[in-house]
Specification:
mainly alpha, 66% helix
């Protein structure tokens, strides 16, 4: 396993501050990813369906939408957000949570995503210190934040994140960063098959879809990152958290409604990344 660099305390804190500052900036970008990626996917699906249903017709013209275009603007008045109005966390505080032009409130979720990304990344740094594990773990954390936000909003887990994330996990563990290469491979395989089996059995019995395919791919990616022994802890934590939230929602709405399971898998994976899997396994008597 990789070793942590032994640094002078002052240098150690400089590393920590750098991780926090970088993660705040990445958190600001993740807000864009969470908002725009589902819209980009919807555009692509619309064009693909149009070409399939009407191959002889020109596809509908849609405005260019990427993660960098168009520039950020107020959704209410269209005010272009200047660079100094887009400084992570600080700009929201300076503007008192309002657009500088029309004074429309800016959702508190934006600074919360930035702050949450920074705090989660710092937790990884304080656990692993200046090491390859921190570098890899922080990247995993950023991806999980994006997937959590997207799935919470749209109940989608984009392949363009989950599949590269799985491949990156296998690549990282080819150097035994978090687990051995064989553990990573079996974590990927069994991570996918475990939830797919539940989905398949539920569909056969009820004729309904119990969960989305993105959940299989996310658990497979987490297995590739954290190893096959992590899967039981991830599933346990995610199922427990999802059940509690589901019961609360049922009491509020008085009816059963579908809800995203991906955020609970992501949170469970991050908890296991920080060593929570060891605690759960011991509690369950599995280690």
């Amino acid at each position: 396993m990789p070793t942590t660099l032994i640094l002078h305390p002052e240098v150690y804190w400089v590393f920590g501050i750098a991780v926090a500052a970088l993660s705040l900036c990445v958190g600001s970008f993740l807000n864009v990813v969470i908002h725009r990626m589902p819209l980009m996917m919807q555009q692509e699906w619309t064009q693909e369906c149009s070409l399939y249903l009407h191959p002889e017709a020109l596809p509908p013209v849609q405005p260019l939408l990427t993660l960098s275009h168009p520039a950020s603007r107020c959704p209410h008045c269209g005010h272009h957000i200047r660079w100094y109005e887009n400084i992570p966390l600080l700009s929201w505080i300076a503007l008192r949570g309002k657009c500088s032009a029309c004074k429309t409130p800016i959702g508190i979720r934006y600074p919360l995503v930035e702050l949450g990304t920074a705090l989660a990344s710092l937790a990884v740094f304080f656990l692993y210190g200046p090491s390859l594990q921190t570098a890899a773990g922080v990247v995993l954390t950023w991806c999980l934040v994006a997937l959590t936000g997207i799935d919470f909003d749209t109940q989608l887990l984009p392949d363009r994140i989950t599949l590269p994330l799985a491949g990156l996990g296998l690549a990282v563990n080819s150097f035994s960063i978090f687990c051995s290469p064989s553990d990573a491979i079996w974590g990927y395989v069994l991570g996918f098959l475990s939830l797919w089996s539940v989905y398949f059995i539920f569909k056969v019995i009820t004729g309904k879809h119990g969960m989305g395919h993105g959940d299989f791919k996310l658990l497979a990616a987490l297995g590739a990152w954290l190893g096959v022994t992590s899967l039981s802890s991830i599933i346990f934590i995610a199922a427990l958290a999802g059940s509690i939230v589901g019961l609360v929602l049922f009491r509020i709405h008085k009816e059963s409604k579908p809800f995203a399971f991906g955020p609970y898998l992501a949170i469970a994976g991050w908890v296991v990344l920080l060593g929570g899997g060891i605690v759960i396994n011991r509690w369950l008597g599995m280690s």
